[in-house]
Every structure is written in structure tokens, then in C-alpha cells.
Design a protein that fits this description.
6-stranded mixed sheet, about 325 residues, alpha+beta, Phosphoribosyl-aminoimidazole Synthetase, Chain A, domain 2, 60s Ribosomal Protein L30, Chain: A, single chain, 7-stranded mixed sheet
Length: about 325
């Protein structure tokens, strides 16, 4: 957004509640009457080999930004780049995977745009709605909040291992199932527990997205290393230093703001910066509301983990 700083003055667009200056997950427009429109877009190259799974994962990932803001998606547009040498059947499976996930979210794909490209790319532009007074923002965490995570970590190292022939069938299946899962129940649980702050953990890894929340809220996030959940195979593959290139970029950008009061191996530390695809929500749950949050997750069939707390100060601490 810095590149647009000379073009758009936030003060001239007071109905844009989120988007011009905040590091949040989606843009938000005030519609009046306590109602807000949420708009987001996301697309990427394949992280798995099966076209259907790729489409489903990309759709869940794009929808997640609406859930991370406390909204419900209603409408989506396909964004497709596809090599002409691949079959029409492959494209149809990709689009079917995306469409079925969107339908499961209670939304509809109403069109889209496609181009020819050397490498497949797929994602969505998504529109959703939320209550203005109940938006989840990165800036809403307060000291005393408990930090909860709603999906296990490690998709970056596992999908990289797939490309190198190092991931087992069982490890890949668990990662794919996690990436295809919606964050709808997690978002609803956060709202039910009165949370004001959340984000989805994606390309910046756990450390990067946690730092964005901590800095936007003016607080310190403390994570308990032993409480962090990992997908099957993530720690084994990390020990072999199987990481996507983005992990080193995240390490370089964020490591100076991470304090470790627990000894970690190089591989363990790298897992904090592992880019995630369609990760879970990181939610700052208000003090005294954790039981309500957990019971709401369970009612929605979703597992969650208490991974730390919000404290006065700044930055991110791993203890």
C-alpha cells in the first residue's frame, strides 16, 4: 500500500474501514446500518499434484480472509491462469474443487476471469458481509487475552517435501485435509467468545502473522513452544531442512523481532517461519471466555490449541 500512498488519502474515504493503512486480511467497506462488506482476493501456483485438491485448497485459502475478519462469504469469482497444453479435463477438475468448497461455505461462484500462462494459477476474489461492531482485526488484541490456534502447522515443509518425493502418503493426506478445511467454525467461535482480534496464518508463517497482530495491537505475543501443534511429518522434514524458499525470506524479515527464551534447534526455529497455505486462525480470546471459545469450536467439529498469551510490551517471545 505504500506505493499508493500518494494516490489514496484514507481521510478522503471514511467509509473504507479497513484497507488503506491497516495490515489486515481483507478490505472492509462500511455499508451503514451496522453492516460491512468484506472484499479479498488470493491466488497461487499448485501446492499439490491433484487438480481437484489444488482447486479446493486455493478456494479455502481465499475464503479464509473473510473468516479472519469475522465475516461470512457470499459471492466469489474465479481467477485462473492455465497452460494451453494441459487438458480441459484437468482444468475442469481444478474448477470443480474450488466450486465445491465455495458451495460448502454457503457462497456461490458467479463468474471469473481466465488467461493462458506457462504455469497454472488459481484462486478467488471473494465478497462477504459482517457486522461492523464485530469485525475481527489484527489491532484488537489486549494484554490478558489467550492465544489460540485452530489448525496444526507445517504445510510449507510438507508440500515442499512432496515436490522432492520426501513426504509419505499419510503425511500428505493429513496436510491436504487441513488445507481444504474451512475456517468458518473457527471464525464463528471467535465471535461467540467476544474476540476482537484474529488473523489467518498463511505465507508469513506463524511468526510473521503473529508479529503483524502484536505490532498492530501494541502488545507482546508470548508463545509456548511445547503447545504449538504440528502436522504429522512436519518436524521430521524440518530436521532435514526441507523448507520452501519463502521460509528463508520470512526468517530474514521477521527474526530480529522474535525473542527466544527457550533453546531451539535451527530446524525448530525455521518452523516458526514456514509459509503456510490455508492455515488456521490465530485468535486472541478475551480473558474468561476460553471455555466458551473451545466449546464453540468443538460444536463446529474443529480442534483448537491454546498456544500462548498476550502481554504488555512488544514483539514476539517464544518460551
Amino acid at each position: 500500500m505504500r506505493a499508493l500512498g500518494d494516490v489514496f488519502d484514507p481521510a478522503a474515504h471514511p467509509d473504507v474501514l479497513v484497507g488503506l493503512t491497516e495490515p489486515d486480511d481483507a478490505a472492509v467497506l462500511d455499508l451503514g446500518g451496522g453492516r460491512a462488506l468484506i472484499l479479498t482476493t488470493d491466488f497461487f501456483t499448485p501446492v499439490v499434484d491433484e487438480p481437484y485438491d489444488f482447486g479446493a485448497i486455493a478456494a479455502a485459502n481465499a475464503l479464509s480472509d473473510v473468516y479472519a475478519m469475522g465475516g461470512e462469504p457470499v459471492l466469489a469469482l474465479n481467477l485462473v491462469a492455465f497452460p494451453p497444453q494441459l487438458s480441459a479435463a484437468t482444468l475442469a477438475e481444478l474448477l470443480r474443487g474450488g466450486a465445491e468448497v465455495v458451495r460448502s461455505a454457503g457462497a456461490v461462484i458467479a463468474g471469473g476471469h481466465s488467461i493462458q500462462d506457462k504455469e497454472p494459477k488459481y484462486g478467488l476474489c471473494v465478497v462477504g458481509f459482517a457486522e461492523t461492531s464485530r469485525l475481527l482485526k489484527k489491532s484488537g488484541a489486549r494484554p490478558g487475552d489467550a492465544l489460540h490456534l485452530t489448525k496444526a502447522l507445517g504445510t510449507g515443509t510438507i508440500t515442499t517435501a512432496l515436490k522432492r518425493g520426501l513426504a509419505s502418503t499419510e503425511e500428505l493426506a493429513a496436510a491436504v485435509a487441513s488445507m481444504k478445511a474451512l475456517n468458518r467454525a473457527a471464525s464463528r467461535a471467535a465471535l461467540a467468545a467476544g474476540a476482537a482480534a484474529a488473523t489467518d496464518v498463511t505465507g508469513f508463517g506463524l511468526a510473521g502473522h503473529a508479529l503483524e497482530m502484536a505490532e498492530a495491537s501494541g502488545v507482546r505475543f508470548r508463545f509456548d513452544w511445547d503447545a504449538l501443534p504440528w502436522l504429522a511429518g512436519a518436524r521430521r522434514l524440518a530436521a532435514e531442512m526441507v523448507f520452501p524458499g519463502g521460509a528463508w525470506g520470512n526468517l530474514e524479515h521477521f527474526c530480529g523481532r522474535v525473542v527466544r527464551t527457550r533453546t531451539l534447534s535451527e530446524a525448530e526455529a525455521m518452523l516458526l517461519f514456514d509459509p503456510q497455505t490455508s492455515g488456521g486462525l490465530l485468535v486472541a480470546v478475551p480473558a474468561g471466555r476460553e471455555a466458551e471459545f473451545t466449546s464453540s469450536l468443538e460444536a463446529g467439529g474443529v480442534q483448537g490449541w491454546r498456544v500462548g498469551e498476550v502481554a504488555p510490551g512488544d514483539g514476539l517471545e517464544i518460551r
